[in-house]
Design brief:
This protein has 525 residues and is α/β, with parallel strands linked by helices. 50% of the residues lie in helices and 11% in strands. The chain contains 20 helices and 11 strands. The strands form 3 sheets. Strands 5-10-9-2-8-6-7 form a 7-stranded mixed β-sheet, with helices on both faces. A two-stranded antiparallel ribbon has the order 1-11. A two-stranded antiparallel sheet has the order 3-4. Helix 16 links the parallel strand 6 and strand 7. It starts with a helix and ends in an 8-residue tail after the last helix.
Length: 525
């Protein structure tokens, strides 16, 4: 037995010595993948044994996949190893940066559906890359390049045994992937099980989301319809609101609940909003974005909570005819939407039209009538002024105005220099945020001054600011409802489920507003 052990040991040492560079490359690929997944996938296991088993399984999968890549490509196709190394560098950088900002693992649907969004805001996203992360991944890339160059110098030939071994590893990998995926019935999954990416890394998560994407959105339609029906008439509003003709709904980019009442450098951050909250209905709501994408306006306008697996809610192929969207449900209101960014940003223009908006204005529309864009688009002050001026020219109509702000979008560089207050010009991200949200408050003040009497204004935070300052709370945003010239702070919002208010509940609150309290249509003379 000892002789067998010694023989096996010598064979192993000799094998490692003869294949030191391929083995080193396999370990380099697998180690980077493992570390990235460890840093971007939170552990859900309380039991240390299960946690270790999960990590071991993930390590084996990474090792198997890396073995397949190296054993196939290190022959005549060795140049492909350079390409694979660069691709791993890019993906690792994207995964780590994405998780560092959104605090959730990236999904395949995000990568495929939002690549053009990233290109449009690349000047905003690139500064989010951690220099330390970039340096470490660059070092890893250089090590791989060095190892690959040594493969070439040693003139290794493709070894059939390694190819066979890699195929066995790959079969093992595919078996685990398919088994776990089929167990969760991927064709009918309504929500991605958090334990799939946690246990198996990104492979199964990407497999499930990819297969759902290939299903032409049918699952999305079914899931969204179910979520809509489950929440029908779930939320009701009771308030001393006077009859009104105009309602303005504003989705505010990066609005933390904590900025209400907050002071910075001895000055109120949002003095106007603080003043109106005394006569308004104010609620704290929880806004969690699954991949940070076009979900808030989708939930507000449709009344359905977006499924986690579909981070790209406003897809151009989605059929909105089954939903009582706000523009479609309240046809007596002239419905117009405004957003200072492009209509192709998250593909909003086509879905908004399908939702029933009679008119939509985006960056390209504003530019065609003479407005000048600044960085990502049109400043909120210009959008607000244009929207309210058009509303005031149609006083005899019932108007539903939906606006998405833009100036307070990360990395908060759109704030006009003359409005930099109260922090002054500073490169600290949270200080730039304070300045940008203060500018938005100034825009609200001017909007309020021009609003017709009795106009109802509903504003809510799209998501929190993702910045770090004293008092900020993750995912907490405000919902504020007020009426010009009327105190409604005694109003109440009731939910049949007694749950806390969430983004999709805003839809039903607005439905109550427009049903119970809007003034009747005037009879034609």
């Amino acid at each position: 037995m000892n002789n067998y052990a010694q023989t096996a040991y010598k064979w192993l040492i000799n094998f490692i010595h003869r294949h030191i560079y391929p083995i080193s490359l396999i370990l380099s690929f697998a180690l980077e993948a493992f570390v990235v997944q460890e840093l971007t996938i939170p552990s859900l296991h309380n039991n240390i044994t299960n946690a270790l088993a999960t990590k071991l399984l993930r390590a084996l999968i990474n090792l198997s996949f890396s073995t397949f890549l190296v054993s196939v490509f290190f022959g005549k196709c060795r140049v492909l190893l350079y390409i694979v190394s660069i691709l791993e560098f890019i993906l690792s950088l994207v995964f780590l940066t994405y998780y560092g900002y959104f605090k959730v693992p990236i999904t395949l649907t995000v990568i495929i559906s939002q690549i053009h969004e990233f290109i449009k805001i690349s000047d905003v996203a690139i500064p989010l890359i951690s220099p330390t992360v970039f340096l470490m991944l660059t070092l890893s890339l250089l090590i791989k390049f060095f190892i690959i160059s040594r493969l070439k110098n040693n003139n290794y030939k493709t070894n059939p045994f390694l190819i066979l071994l890699s195929l066995i590893f790959l079969s093992f990998l595919i078996q685990i992937s398919l088994q776990s995926t089929l167990q969760h019935n991927f064709l009918y999954v309504l929500d991605m099980d958090d334990r799939i990416p946690e246990a198996y890394g990104y492979l199964n998560a990407f497999t499930i989301s990819g297969l759902n994407m290939l299903n032409n959105g049918q699952n999305f339609c079914l899931t969204t319809q179910k979520l809509y029906n489950d929440r029908r008439n779930d939320t009701q509003l009771y308030a001393p609101i006077k009859p009104f003709k105009n309602i303005i709904v504003v989705q505010v980019e990066s609005l933390d609940y904590s900025v209400l009442g907050m002071e910075s450098n001895g000055k109120e951050v949002m003095p106007f909003l603080n003043s109106v909250t005394k006569s308004a209905i104010v609620k704290k709501i929880f806004s969690r974005h699954h991949g940070g994408s076009a979900n808030s306006d989708y939930q507000c306008l449709t009344g359905a909570e977006s499924p986690k697996i579909y981070t790209y809610a406003l897809h151009t192929k989605l059929d909105f005819s089954k939903f009582e969207t706000l523009p479609r449900k309240f046809k007596k209101f002239k419905s117009v939407s405004y957003h200072g960014c492009t209509g192709s940003f998250f593909s909003r223009k086509i879905p908004y039209t399908k939702m029933g908006f009679q008119e939509t204005y985006f960056l390209e529309d504003f530019e065609s009538i003479g407005f000048k864009g600044s960085k990502m688009g049109i400043l909120d002050g210009d959008v607000f002024n244009f929207a309210i001026d058009r509303l005031n020219t149609s006083k005899n109509d019932h108007n539903f105005i939906f606006i998405i702000t833009l100036t307070s979008h990360c990395d908060f560089d759109m704030t006009p220099s003359k409005n930099v207050y109260p922090e002054g010009e500073d490169d600290a991200l949270w200080k730039k945020y304070i300045n940008s949200i203060n500018y938005v408050d100034q825009c609200f003040c001017k909007l309020y001054e021009k609003m017709p009497k009795d106009t109802v204004l509903v504003l809510y935070g799209d998501h929190w600011s993702y910045t770090d300052y004293d008092g900020v709370s993750m995912d907490e945003v405000p919902l504020v409802i007020f009426q010009k010239g009327n105190d409604i702070h005694n109003g109440i919002i009731l939910k049949t489920t007694n749950d806390s208010i969430k983004l999709h509940d805003i839809h039903w609150i607005i439905c109550d507003l427009m049903t119970k309290y809007s003034s009747p249509l005037e009879e034609p003379s």
